[in-house]
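User: C-alpha coordinates for this one?
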Amino acid sequence: MKSFNLRSVKLRSGEEFRDAIELELAPLEYGGQRYIPVPENVPAELVLSRATTGTVFALRFGARLYGPCYRCLGHAVLDVPVNAREYQATSPADDDELRTPYLLDEKLDLEAWARDAIALELPEQILCRLDCKGLCPVCGKDLNVEPHEHEEERVDSRWAALAELRDKL
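Assistant:
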Protein backbone atom coordinates (compact mmCIF):
# COMPACT_ATOMS: atom_id res chain seq x y z
CA MET A 1 0.00 0.00 0.00
CA LYS A 2 1.46 3.32 -1.09
CA SER A 3 0.69 5.97 1.50
CA PHE A 4 1.76 9.46 2.45
CA ASN A 5 2.46 10.26 6.10
CA LEU A 6 0.86 13.60 6.95
CA ARG A 7 2.99 13.93 10.07
CA SER A 8 5.95 14.73 7.83
CA VAL A 9 4.21 17.94 6.71
CA LYS A 10 3.34 20.75 9.10
CA LEU A 11 1.07 23.31 7.47
CA ARG A 12 -0.57 26.42 8.88
CA SER A 13 -3.81 27.85 7.59
CA GLY A 14 -3.38 29.15 4.03
CA GLU A 15 -0.20 27.18 3.34
CA GLU A 16 0.22 24.60 0.59
CA PHE A 17 2.54 21.61 0.13
CA ARG A 18 3.29 20.11 -3.31
CA ASP A 19 5.15 16.90 -3.99
CA ALA A 20 5.93 14.93 -7.13
CA ILE A 21 5.32 11.27 -6.34
CA GLU A 22 5.18 7.99 -8.21
CA LEU A 23 2.00 5.92 -7.98
CA GLU A 24 1.83 2.18 -8.54
CA LEU A 25 -1.49 1.44 -10.22
CA ALA A 26 -3.12 -1.95 -9.78
CA PRO A 27 -5.31 -3.68 -12.39
CA LEU A 28 -8.90 -2.46 -12.26
CA GLU A 29 -12.04 -4.61 -12.29
CA TYR A 30 -14.78 -2.62 -14.03
CA GLY A 31 -18.09 -3.97 -15.31
CA GLY A 32 -16.91 -7.54 -14.85
CA GLN A 33 -13.84 -6.92 -17.01
CA ARG A 34 -10.19 -6.49 -16.08
CA TYR A 35 -8.28 -3.41 -17.24
CA ILE A 36 -4.49 -3.27 -16.95
CA PRO A 37 -2.66 0.04 -16.42
CA VAL A 38 0.39 0.45 -18.65
CA PRO A 39 2.76 1.57 -17.32
CA GLU A 40 2.01 0.46 -13.77
CA ASN A 41 4.08 3.27 -12.27
CA VAL A 42 2.99 6.78 -13.21
CA PRO A 43 4.20 10.19 -12.07
CA ALA A 44 1.68 12.15 -10.02
CA GLU A 45 1.36 15.42 -8.17
CA LEU A 46 0.09 15.51 -4.61
CA VAL A 47 -1.06 18.86 -3.21
CA LEU A 48 -2.01 19.47 0.41
CA SER A 49 -3.70 22.77 1.27
CA ARG A 50 -4.46 23.78 4.83
CA ALA A 51 -7.68 25.74 5.37
CA THR A 52 -9.02 27.12 8.64
CA THR A 53 -11.54 24.26 8.91
CA GLY A 54 -9.49 21.36 7.58
CA THR A 55 -7.21 20.06 4.84
CA VAL A 56 -7.82 19.78 1.11
CA PHE A 57 -6.00 17.01 -0.76
CA ALA A 58 -5.49 17.03 -4.53
CA LEU A 59 -4.06 14.26 -6.68
CA ARG A 60 -3.29 14.69 -10.40
CA PHE A 61 -2.00 12.03 -12.80
CA GLY A 62 -2.74 10.29 -16.07
CA ALA A 63 -3.40 6.59 -16.56
CA ARG A 64 -3.61 4.44 -19.67
CA LEU A 65 -5.75 1.32 -19.39
CA TYR A 66 -5.78 -1.72 -21.68
CA GLY A 67 -8.67 -4.19 -21.74
CA PRO A 68 -11.66 -5.48 -23.70
CA CYS A 69 -14.11 -3.35 -25.67
CA TYR A 70 -17.67 -3.58 -24.32
CA ARG A 71 -19.20 -4.08 -27.78
CA CYS A 72 -16.81 -6.25 -29.81
CA LEU A 73 -14.54 -7.67 -27.07
CA GLY A 74 -11.49 -6.48 -29.06
CA HIS A 75 -8.61 -4.56 -27.54
CA ALA A 76 -9.47 -1.14 -26.12
CA VAL A 77 -7.02 1.51 -24.95
CA LEU A 78 -8.26 4.33 -22.75
CA ASP A 79 -6.35 7.39 -21.56
CA VAL A 80 -7.72 8.62 -18.24
CA PRO A 81 -6.70 12.03 -16.92
CA VAL A 82 -7.33 12.20 -13.16
CA ASN A 83 -7.72 15.34 -11.09
CA ALA A 84 -9.13 14.20 -7.75
CA ARG A 85 -9.89 16.19 -4.60
CA GLU A 86 -10.68 15.14 -1.05
CA TYR A 87 -11.42 17.10 2.12
CA GLN A 88 -10.78 16.27 5.76
CA ALA A 89 -12.22 18.58 8.40
CA THR A 90 -10.20 19.31 11.51
CA SER A 91 -13.14 18.22 13.69
CA PRO A 92 -15.43 16.08 11.51
CA ALA A 93 -17.41 14.60 14.44
CA ASP A 94 -19.77 11.97 12.96
CA ASP A 95 -20.32 13.68 9.59
CA ASP A 96 -18.97 11.43 6.81
CA GLU A 97 -19.04 14.28 4.29
CA LEU A 98 -16.38 16.09 6.32
CA ARG A 99 -13.88 13.24 6.25
CA THR A 100 -12.06 11.35 3.57
CA PRO A 101 -12.10 7.54 3.62
CA TYR A 102 -8.48 7.50 2.46
CA LEU A 103 -7.05 8.99 5.65
CA LEU A 104 -6.29 6.65 8.55
CA ASP A 105 -3.97 7.42 11.46
CA GLU A 106 -2.43 10.44 9.71
CA LYS A 107 -1.61 8.33 6.61
CA LEU A 108 -3.19 9.10 3.26
CA ASP A 109 -3.83 5.88 1.28
CA LEU A 110 -2.71 6.97 -2.20
CA GLU A 111 -3.19 3.56 -3.83
CA ALA A 112 -6.88 3.25 -2.91
CA TRP A 113 -7.53 6.91 -3.71
CA ALA A 114 -5.90 6.57 -7.16
CA ARG A 115 -7.89 3.39 -7.94
CA ASP A 116 -11.21 5.01 -6.97
CA ALA A 117 -10.36 8.23 -8.81
CA ILE A 118 -9.69 6.28 -12.02
CA ALA A 119 -12.97 4.39 -11.66
CA LEU A 120 -14.88 7.65 -11.28
CA GLU A 121 -13.36 9.04 -14.49
CA LEU A 122 -14.21 6.03 -16.66
CA PRO A 123 -17.01 6.26 -19.24
CA GLU A 124 -20.05 4.00 -18.95
CA GLN A 125 -18.76 1.83 -21.78
CA ILE A 126 -15.13 1.38 -22.70
CA LEU A 127 -14.93 1.06 -26.48
CA CYS A 128 -12.12 0.27 -28.91
CA ARG A 129 -13.36 3.24 -30.98
CA LEU A 130 -16.37 5.52 -30.83
CA ASP A 131 -18.10 3.96 -33.85
CA CYS A 132 -17.60 0.33 -32.77
CA LYS A 133 -20.34 -1.80 -34.32
CA GLY A 134 -19.98 -4.70 -31.88
CA LEU A 135 -20.78 -8.35 -32.49
CA CYS A 136 -23.53 -9.73 -34.74
CA PRO A 137 -26.42 -10.87 -32.51
CA VAL A 138 -27.15 -13.80 -34.87
CA CYS A 139 -23.75 -15.32 -35.69
CA GLY A 140 -21.40 -13.55 -33.26
CA LYS A 141 -18.94 -12.23 -35.86
CA ASP A 142 -17.20 -8.89 -35.32
CA LEU A 143 -19.16 -6.33 -37.37
CA ASN A 144 -16.14 -3.99 -37.49
CA VAL A 145 -14.10 -6.57 -39.39
CA GLU A 146 -16.87 -8.24 -41.37
CA PRO A 147 -19.96 -6.01 -41.75
CA HIS A 148 -22.96 -8.06 -42.85
CA GLU A 149 -26.69 -8.59 -42.42
CA HIS A 150 -28.70 -11.79 -42.26
CA GLU A 151 -31.44 -12.02 -44.88
CA GLU A 152 -34.08 -14.05 -43.15
CA GLU A 153 -35.18 -13.28 -39.65
CA ARG A 154 -34.79 -16.26 -37.36
CA VAL A 155 -37.79 -16.80 -35.12
CA ASP A 156 -37.24 -18.43 -31.78
CA SER A 157 -39.55 -21.45 -31.53
CA ARG A 158 -40.37 -20.50 -27.93
CA TRP A 159 -42.25 -17.45 -29.28
CA ALA A 160 -44.31 -19.43 -31.84
CA ALA A 161 -47.43 -19.55 -29.65
CA LEU A 162 -47.37 -15.76 -29.23
CA ALA A 163 -46.87 -15.26 -32.98
CA GLU A 164 -49.96 -17.38 -33.68
CA LEU A 165 -51.95 -15.34 -31.17
CA ARG A 166 -50.75 -12.11 -32.80
CA ASP A 167 -51.87 -13.35 -36.21
CA LYS A 168 -55.35 -14.15 -34.86
CA LEU A 169 -55.79 -10.64 -33.44
